[in-house]
Design a protein that fits this description.
heterodimer; A: alpha+beta; OB fold (Dihydrolipoamide Acetyltransferase, E2P); three-stranded antiparallel β-sheet; B: alpha+beta; Gyrase A, domain 2; Elongation Factor Tu (Ef-tu), domain 3; globular
Chain lengths: 127, 366
């Protein structure tokens, strides 16, 4: 299962998961990590930063290339995943467990505007 | 219009991720580039390098022609099979390509050139041949496989035991022809990884069968991704990235490939290089090791006490487990100097070193 049904997605290959505390975890999809190859470095936003939807806020670097990660929704960053920073290869190994950062959404309803698994599957198949 | 090597189907069957490289559909990796890199440093890996072009040179003027054509001096090649690395220069001293020349006799050589420059090289070589009695024959009928790593030769001999006798005595940068069933293979102890091994040139029709036997002997298929990090660690330039027609060998870490010993020899680009040497203030291609977290890439600004420079190649080094790069830096910068590299909105600390970074399985950086 490379596209979990219970997550939301973006056209730029990020996934989003609504956590119990109302924050949203953001990571990159299986398709994205596979395209990047071996991931060796993560630059993630600090807690407290306010991001707009579509704003560049993180960088995932593989041996091959650097890839920008965009904030899929507006909000305040509440955490970054220090475990993933210490072991960037965990994003290749289990991209849906290795979240990158968490946002407290400015408007929780924004999540509903993103792609569901079926819609993202089409995007991934075409890219 | 991309081209495929005779091993394309073997790559796809092995699960390779295919990319366009200089107009060729080549494997970038077969899963993990880092695992492939380590296989070559620690054991044995193999690369399809059939996209590169072998050109056979023959004729009674072959030696005189090459002594004019390239910046290194083929007159130093006297043992049959001996190979020489050289730059092919334009009259301004810019690098048209870097290549390897194999000597068989003073009237017979083989030249192996890069894929992306092959058509340009051949046209240039033909044009320079006008006043020499030589013929140039491109050999697209050949496939080439590089088998590299500390166990590469042993595993190659496991796959082809009868080739051992013909190749066991080969010194570094030395090749031998080996006849099997009436067809000849050229087996050379050369490579682009900083490890021991062979590069073999064989008839295209045999390539897939050979590849399969080498894989069965435990040699891991490796893609162009690992080839790039291996050559970078080994301190070897990549044409088009670390040097091109706008850069000369003196400022590309390739002064060692220029041979000025015979004052009577006038190779193409010689006078331009001599002028550049007199002007002085030569920039230098040196290595960088990133001390902060991050990954160096090509075309990043390097800030030094002697002025700004620029990275030409950069990546994550699997052997050093940190990021490394080549950078063209101003005169006066020395190995050991602390510099800064501009990566996105940050200035990161790096140390200047003299490449190579790693060879023969080991880091060479303290």
């Amino acid at each position: 299962m490379t596209i979990p049904a219970d997550l939301k997605y973006t056209k730029t290959h990020e996934w989003l998961k609504l956590e119990a505390d109302g924050s949203v975890s953001i990571g990159i999809t299986f398709h994205a990590q596979e395209a990047l190859g071996d991931i060796v470095f993560l630059e993630l936003p600090d807690a407290g930063r306010t991001v707009k939807a579509g704003e560049e806020c993180a960088v995932v670097e593989s041996v091959k290339a650097a890839s920008d990660i965009y904030a899929p929704i507006a909000g305040d960053v509440v955490a970054k995943n220090e475990d993933a920073i210490a072991a960037p290869e965990s994003v290749n190994q289990d991209c849906y467990a290795a979240w990158l950062f968490r946002i407290k959404p400015a408007n929780p309803a924004d999540l509903a505007t993103l792609l569901d698994a079926a819609a993202y599957e089409k995007v991934a198949a075409e890219s | 219009m991309t081209q495929r090597t005779p091993l394309y189907d073997a790559h796809v069957a092995a699960g390779a991720k295919i990319v366009d490289f200089a107009g060729w559909e080549m494997p970038i990796n077969y899963g993990s580039q880092i695992e492939e890199h380590h296989a070559v440093r620690r054991d044995a890996g193999m690369f399809d390098v059939s996209h590169m072009l072998a050109i056979d040179l023959a004729g009674c003027d072959a030696q005189a022609y090459l002594r004019r054509l390239v910046a290194n001096d083929v007159a130093k090649l006297t043992v049959p099979g001996k190979a020489l690395y050289s730059c092919l220069l334009n009259p301004d001293g810019g690098v048209i390509d870097d290549l390897i020349i194999y000597f068989f006799t003073p009237t017979q050589y083989r030249i192996v050139v890069n894929a992306g420059t092959a058509a340009k090289d051949l046209a240039w070589m033909q044009a320079q041949a006008a006043n020499f009695n030589v013929s140039l024959t491109p050999r697209r009928d050949l496939a080439m496989i590089a088998v590299q790593g500390p166990q590469a030769r042993e595993r190659f001999w496991t796959a082809f035991p009868v080739a051992r006798a013909a190749t066991v005595m080969l010194g570094v940068f030395q090749a031998a022809e080996w006849e099997v069933d009436g067809v000849s293979w050229l087996i050379a102890r050369t490579g682009y990884t900083g490890e021991d091994g062979f590069e073999i040139a064989v008839p295209a029709a045999q390539a897939a069968g050979i590849w399969e036997r080498l894989a069965a002997a435990g040699i891991k298929p490796c893609g162009l991704g690992a080839r790039d990090t291996l050559r970078l660690e080994a301190g070897m330039n990549l044409y088009g990235q670390d040097m091109d027609e706008t850069q000369n060998p003196l400022e590309s870490g390739l002064a060692w490939t220029l041979d000025f010993k015979d004052a009577s020899r006038d190779f193409i680009g010689k006078s331009a290089l001599a002028r550049r040497q007199v002007e002085g203030k030569l920039r230098q291609l040196l290595g960088l090791v990133l001390l902060d977290k991050g990954v160096l890439r090509s075309h990043q600004k390097v800030i030094t006490e002697h002025g700004d420079g620029e990275t030409t190649s950069g990546s994550f080094s699997p052997t050093l487990n940190q990021s490394i790069a080549f950078a063209r830096l101003p005169a006066g910068v020395q190995p050991g100097d602390a510099v800064q590299v501009a990566i996105r909105d940050k200035l990161l600390k790096a140390k200047v070193v003299k490449p190579p970074f790693a060879r023969n399985g080991k880091s060479l950086i303290q």
